[in-house]
Specification:
The protein is an alpha+beta fold. Helix content is 19%, strand content 36%. InterPro entries: NUDIX_hydrolase-like_dom_sf, NUDIX_hydrolase_dom.
Length: 193
């Protein structure tokens, strides 16, 4: 090990080269810690994401199945979405949960599970995860025009197994499932030492 101090890059310039308001891209000119200049460092400031691992009174996890166009596949994941304009992270989490699943809850019932950065090299996007116990289907889905979502519930231990065996493979969902299983092993049928 060394005592080397890692220093941030110095921003010399920024240009918005976004092809669409739906997919922002920035071009930065930066000076590295070693003095080198990179004049074409591209990344996307997509915005933050919220996700909720909702568990029913019957110890079932609420999942959503939907088509994801970038991969051209139908994927199984936890409900969530982008932080909504003029809404806090918690408000966005509650709204996304209700919109995608028909589960309405209050802020005091959400348990924060931390944050996840999927690709901090090329994305400025943080996913904030929450757990909700005793989730109830007490509202209606309010889907966006691009959403076609099937809601399903599975026993928590089965969801963990699907994450382990690759049936659930979306990064945010995997991380939140695993973090929650470690924090609440009894919910997932685990016996940790």
């Amino acid at each position: 090990m060394t005592d080397k101090e890692i220093k941030p890059w110095k921003l010399l310039g920024e240009e918005d080269v976004s092809p669409s308001p739906w997919f922002p891209i920035l071009k930065h000119t930066v000076e590295l810690a070693n003095g080198s200049i990179v004049d074409d460092y591209y990344f996307s400031p997509l915005g933050d994401v919220v996700q909720v691992l909702a568990i029913t009174k019957n110890n079932e996890v609420v999942l959503v199945e939907q088509y994801k166009h970038a991969l051209s596949q139908v994927l199984l994941e936890l409900p969530g979405g982008m932080q909504q304009k003029n809404k806090s992270i918690v408000e966005s989490a509650l709204n996304e949960l209700e919109e995608e699943t028909g589960i309405k809850a209050t802020a005091n019932r959400l348990i924060p599970m931390g944050k996840i950065a999927n690709n901090p090299t090329k994305l400025r996007q943080i996913t904030y995860g929450f757990v909700l116990f005793d989730a109830e289907f007490n509202s209606e889905q309010k889907l966006d025009i691009t959403e076609d979502i099937r809601v399903l519930t599975l026993p928590a231990h089965e969801v963990l197994q699907k994450a382990i065996n690759g049936e659930i493979w979306v990064t945010d969902s995997l991380n939140l499932i695993f973090k929650t299983a470690l924090a609440y092993p009894e919910v997932f049928g685990l016996k940790l030492k």
